[in-house]
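Below is how a single chain appears once it has passed through the pipeline. First comes the sequence as given, then the structure the pipeline wrote out for it. We keep one example in the README because the format questions we get most often are answered faster by looking than by reading.
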Amino acid sequence: MALPAYWWLLLPAVLGQCAFFLLSGALRPGEKTLQGGPWLLTVLAASLLSGLAYGAVQSDPVFIAAQCFLAVTVFRIWRKQ
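Resulting structure:
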């Protein structure tokens, strides 16, 4: 199986989002602050942009829609901090 055409855009998107959700536990139940500090939100935002770029280059509306839902999540977490 060959790698996708723009795998180098997909790699930071996948790794950044995995790191965010595994290291932070996203938002812990009952707490309103992000565990791990603002650098973790920066990692998620960077992976979001990389994912959006990959979706745009590949013309993949499903991938773009998923990244837009992630953008809403990032915005809501950022607003709570």
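The chain is about 75% helix and 0% strand.

See the next section for the split statistics.
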